Backbone:
């Protein structure tokens, strides 16, 4: 008899993407109320960043098939 399937944490699936060496995610603080932020700060928050190594095991548990 086959084992059971693990459920993917859907919130994590929308926030993280698997890469060859870990996971990537979008920078926080880019959704709303951006008028108080400087242009330089908003520019630096563009793009994606890597997840820290210490956080990868918990993300791997939330995304078992990533």
Residues:
């Amino acid at each position: 008899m086959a084992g059971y399937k693990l459920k993917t944490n859907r919130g994590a699936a929308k926030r993280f993407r698997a890469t060859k060496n870990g996971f990537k995610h979008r920078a926080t603080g880019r959704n709303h109320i951006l008028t108080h932020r400087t242009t330089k700060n908003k520019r630096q928050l563009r793009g994606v960043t890597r997840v820290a190594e210490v956080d990868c095991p918990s993300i791997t548990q939330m995304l078992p098939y990533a």
